[in-house]
Amino acid sequence: MVSHMGVQEYATVRNQNVEILVDFIIKCSLEKLKEKGIVASFEEPLRQKEFVRSDCSDVFDHFFKVKTFSNINGNRDFEIWAQTTCYKGNKSGRPESNKTYEIRETLIESLGLRKWLLSENKSFRTVHFTVGPTEYTYGWFESAKKNAFDLSVYPIDKFDINGLFNELNELFKEAKMEFQYNSLLEEIYNSSESTLIKEFILYMQDKIISWFEQGLPSSEVADKQANLIKRIEDINKEYFDEVISKSKYGGMNIKGKVKGILWGSEPYNPMYKNTLEKVTSKAPFIPGALQTMANWDITTKKIFDKPDQCDSISDYIRYLWSREDENRLIVRRLLLRTPHKGTINYIQDLDINGITEHNLYNGKPTSEQLDNIKEKITKICEENDIFNINDLYEELTNKRARKLLSESVRSEINNGSNIKPTFYFVEDSLGDSYEIVSFNETNLERPIAYHSNFTTGKVSPYQNMKVIRLRETKVPLAIIKAKYFSEREFGRRAKEEAYVGITTKYIYNNGSFVERYKGLPLIMFVDMDEKLIPQEYFIRRLINTGWTVFFSIETLRQFLKDIAEVN
Question: Alpha-carbon dihedral of residues 190, 191, 194, 198, nearest 10 degrees?
Answer without folding.
Answer: -30
